[in-house]
């Protein structure tokens, strides 16, 4: 059945293409696609998407809206094949702050800009076993799609142009600029799906995940020549649950919740610009989002005395983890011309604050009087950045003017961890032998609290110009200095040769870097284990800490931790561009070598009863003076090599009888290999700090290839979009060294279909379905899912929710 659906998915797009080709008439000579002007990857004014020296995708706001999901990151991943956006579950805060991946690199190895200025990262660092483990990335879903005019995705290393993080590329969100007009869109949808669980063979028919999104924008004039664009969005999404039946309980039933969290968020953005005199413009933007999410932890059995108190939860319980996520950004700037120089100066502030809570749970060590909900503490990250960009075209005797750009960026970052309420982390007196803390999510302790900051200053020089009539070249050099680890210098050389007006080749070589984030350097989260110790013939339970420690803490250093250094990279790319009339084709091959990548180590565990001289006993002896028995930390030491190719083909057909067709075929092939991993230096028997499971998450946690076929049709008031996305198999690695705990998601084709009808000039009604044929990844085998709680892999690149049916009403004025 899976194979049949896959073939049907692929055939649907092929059939559309074939039928369109039969209906077309010869296109007129002037029937060409609009060439969008881009500002990402080049500082030359007026450079079009197809004339750039490196590949740039342009995703319009219209494209973002032609699907059921109203999440910005989900819509972007469905449009750009080199981006994947998995939907992990049971991963604490990562359930609601999910990472996006470009070209298989880390989520924090893609720089995100808003209107060309660096966007702040999320306060959350992913320390769980999902895609992006160990990274603190930008939360793309904190920006409402109604505020976005277009997104430019630079698929090339660009640290020499933009600074830290741009190893895989750059995502630049351009906010809407309008002084008139507006619109309101209301989208409502729900999952209508079914699957047969492997636990019992019973078919489950499910209707859940009801989602309502209301979004709108309004353009206003600022005086006679300025603009103020206001955007707002409200989204209310119920949780989804794809857990199987739990055969451990009587009567057998679904006890877990595995799927998307329940989310309610409200967002507001304002973007403004106002000319000052003849040559200058003041501009700025403000954005705010409040997001409340509720995800689940794992189900606790009623008979587990270490987790449950029967008088409180006679049927067991399912802890629910809440995240209160507040995100704010504000920017102001001035740009204009002075004596032939284009000058842009801006100051941008961004802050992300996440407060954790747990409910429907308890702290068993408190006994039957334990609270059932807890405030578990929180994380805060903020960033203040000043940027100055100056450029001028200078005649130097080449085939065209040389664009000389230079500037600087000064940045200050802070990171804080705040402790939770006492009961969320304390050990009660009723059951002192039990581990402490609220189940599902243990609160941050006072010893976890940090308040740290750093400064960074960078300067750059960027040259671009036509060396001959057919050859264009560019060179960039950037130097950055950080107050915590030192400095870095990156460079980039790019060239493009236009053989004809229709055909060109392009290529680039560059170095890059990513500074260790404050979250990686200072994140701390601990729990307490009680280990029996015998002193003078008396045995007592002694508390020992275990968890994640900073690499430079006493515990981190005891385990071999060192101050973190920046990751470095070498990027190489070569490609070709062909465009003539309504047809365009780009092919870009690339190689990305990353050295000294920062990763979260394996947990090194000690034992007081282990034999002398063994690793476990040595670890215990090293850590026991500091009250710890186990730990993990962030470290450098992983080298990776990525080789891949992106292909994008577009064709536009205009036929008087059949209508207008925009056809796109886009694909990415990405081979990711781990070349080196770190090992311990403090143990008698060396062990890997980045073992088999972690390595395979890197190498096979994202699809090796992804292909999207999309057809957009319009005729008069009617329109439709048919999209087929093919995903390669993804591995979800288990802990067993022999691979017996591994499983695969399978190769799958997902079909999305939307139909639209415009009424008059201002009202459009749309209906559609994402994952029309209700496809799922392969299920986890029952022997690896004995509770029925996690029958699907969080590594699935398209999730595991099934068919989503929706309707949308849009009004414009």
Describe the structure.
The structure is a single chain. The protein is mostly beta strands. The two termini are 47 Å apart. The chain has a single domain, classed as Maltoporin, Chain A, CATH 2.40.170.20. The model is unreliable at 1-34 (pLDDT under 50). β19 (486-498) and β20 (503-514) form a beta hairpin. Residues 283-772 form the TonB-dependent receptor-like beta-barrel domain. Belongs to the TonB-dependent receptor family. It is a multi-pass membrane protein.
**Rg over C-alpha atoms, rounded to the nearest angstrom:** 27 Å
| CATH third-tier fold name | Maltoporin, Chain A
* CATH class placement: Mainly Beta
CATH homologous superfamily heading: TonB-dependent receptor, beta-barrel domain
Structure at a glance:
This protein has 813 residues and is mainly beta.
Features:
22-stranded antiparallel β-barrel; mainly beta; Maltoporin, Chain A; five-stranded mixed beta sheet; 35 strands
Q: Which helices and strands, and how do they pair?
A:
Elements: H1 2-23, E1 56-60, H2 61-65, H3 72-79, E2 83-84, E3 101-102, E4 110-114, E5 117-118, E6 148-154, H4 159-162, E7 169-175, E8 182-196, E9 203-222, E10 226-237, E11 262-276, E12 280-296, E13 320-338, E14 341-359, E15 373-394, E16 402-418, H5 422-425, E17 450-466, E18 471-482, E19 486-498, E20 503-514, H6 518-522, E21 525-535, E22 538-548, H7 554-558, E23 567-580, E24 583-600, E25 604-605, H8 615-623, E26 628-632, E27 634-655, E28 659-676, H9 692-700, E29 705-715, E30 718-727, E31 731-732, E32 743-744, E33 748-759, E34 763-770, E35 804-812
Parallel strand pairs: 4-7, 22-26
Antiparallel strand pairs: 1-6, 2-3, 4-5, 6-7, 8-9, 8-35, 9-10, 10-11, 11-12, 12-13, 13-14, 14-15, 15-16, 16-17, 17-18, 18-19, 19-20, 20-23, 21-22, 23-24, 24-27, 25-26, 27-28, 28-29, 29-30, 30-33, 31-32, 33-34, 34-35
């Amino acid at each position: 059945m899976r194979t049949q659906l896959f073939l049907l998915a692929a055939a649907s797009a092929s059939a559309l293409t074939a039928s369109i080709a039969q209906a077309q008439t010869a296109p007129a000579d002037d029937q060409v696609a609009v060439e969008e002007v881009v500002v990402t990857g080049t500082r030359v004014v007026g450079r079009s998407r197809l004339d750039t020296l490196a590949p740039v995708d342009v995703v319009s706001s219209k494209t973002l809206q032609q699907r059921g999901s109203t999440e910005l990151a989900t819509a972007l991943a469905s449009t750009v094949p080199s981006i994947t956006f998995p939907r992990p579950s049971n991963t604490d805060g990562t359930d609601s702050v999910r990472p996006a991946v470009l070209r298989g690199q880390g989520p924090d190895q893609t720089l995100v800009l808003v209107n060309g200025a660096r966007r702040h990262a999320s306060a959350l660092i992913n320390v769980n076993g999902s895609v992006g483990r160990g990274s603190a990335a930008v939360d793309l879903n904190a920006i409402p799609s109604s505020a976005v005019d277009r997104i430019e995705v630079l698929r090339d290393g660009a640290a020499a142009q933009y600074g830290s993080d741009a190893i895989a590329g750059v995502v630049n969100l351009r906010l809407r600029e309008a002084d008139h007009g507006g619109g309101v869109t209301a989208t409502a949808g729900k999952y209508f799906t079914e699957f047969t669980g492997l636990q019992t063979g019973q078919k489950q028919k499910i209707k859940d995940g009801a989602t309502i999104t209301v979004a709108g924008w309004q353009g206003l004039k600022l005086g006679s020549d300025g603009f103020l664009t206001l955007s707002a969005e409200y989204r209310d999404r119920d949780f989804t649950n794809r857990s199987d039946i739990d055969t451990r309980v009587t009567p057998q039933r679904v006890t877990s919740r595995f799927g998307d969290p329940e989310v309610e968020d409200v967002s507001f953005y304002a973007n403004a610009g106002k000319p000052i005199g003849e040559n200058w413009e003041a501009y700025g933007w403000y954005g705010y989002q409040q997001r409340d999410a509720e995800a689940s932890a794992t189900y606790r059995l009623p008979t587990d005395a270490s987790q449950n108190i029967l008088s409180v939860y006679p049927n067991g319980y399912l802890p629910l983890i809440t995240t209160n996520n507040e995100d704010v950004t504000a920017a102001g700037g001035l740009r204009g011309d002075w004596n032939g120089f284009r000058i842009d100066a801006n100051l941008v502030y961004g802050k992300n604050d996440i407060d954790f809570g747990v409910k429907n749970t308890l702290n068993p060590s408190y006994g039957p009087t334990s609270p059932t909900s807890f405030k578990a503490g929180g994380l805060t990250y903020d960033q203040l950045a000043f940027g100055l960009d100056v450029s001028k075209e200078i005649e130097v005797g080449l085939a065209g003017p040389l664009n000389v750009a230079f500037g600087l960026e000064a940045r200050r970052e802070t990171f804080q961890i705040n402790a939770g309420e006492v009961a969320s982390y304390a050990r009660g007196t009723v059951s002192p032998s039990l581990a402490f803390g609220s189940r599902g999510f243990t609160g941050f302790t006072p010893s976890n609290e940090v308040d740290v900051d750093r400064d960074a200053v960078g300067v750059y020089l960027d040259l671009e110009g036509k060396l001959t009539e057919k050859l264009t070249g560019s060179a960039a050099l950037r130097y950055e200095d950080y107050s915590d680890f030192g400095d870095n210098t990156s460079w980039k050389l790019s060239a493009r040769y236009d053989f004809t007006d229709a055909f060109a080749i392009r290529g680039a070589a560059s170095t890059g870097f990513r500074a260790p984030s404050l979250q990686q350097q200072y994140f701390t989260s601990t729990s307490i284990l009680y280990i029996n110790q015998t002193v003078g013939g008396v045995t007592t339970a002694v508390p020992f800490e275990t968890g994640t420690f900073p690499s430079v803490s006493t515990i981190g250093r005891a385990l071999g931790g060192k101050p973190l250094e920046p990751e470095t990279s070498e990027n190489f790319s070569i490609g070709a561009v062909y465009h003539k009339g309504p047809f365009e084709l780009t092919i870009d091959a690339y190689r990305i070598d990353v050295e000294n990548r920062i990763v979260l180590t394996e947990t090194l565990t000690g034992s007081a009863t282990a034999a002398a001289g063994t690793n476990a006993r040595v670890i215990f002896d090293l850590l026991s003076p500091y009250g710890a028995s186990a730990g993990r930390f962030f470290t450098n030491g992983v080298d990776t090599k990525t080789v891949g190719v992106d292909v994008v083909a577009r064709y536009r057909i205009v036929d008087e009888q059949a209508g207008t067709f925009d056809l796109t075929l886009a694909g990415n092939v990405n081979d990711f290999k781990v070349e080196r991993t770190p090992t311990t230096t403090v143990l008698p028997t060396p062990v890997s700090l980045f073992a088999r499971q972690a390595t395979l998450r890197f190498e096979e946690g994202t699809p090796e290839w992804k292909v999207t076929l999309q057809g957009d049709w319009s005729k008069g008031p009617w329109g439709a979009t048919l999209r087929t996305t093919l995903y390669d198999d993804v591995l979800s690695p288990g802990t067993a060294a022999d691979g017996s705990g591994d499983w695969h998601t399978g190769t799958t084709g997902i079909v999305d279909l939307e139909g639209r009808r415009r009424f008059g000039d201002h009202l459009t009604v749309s209906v559609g379905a994402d994952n029309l044929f209700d496809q799922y990844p392969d299920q986890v085998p029952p022997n690896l899912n004995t509770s029925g709680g996690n029958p699907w892999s969080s590594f699935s690149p398209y999730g595991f929710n099934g068919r989503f049916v929706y309707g949308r009403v849009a009004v414009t004025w």
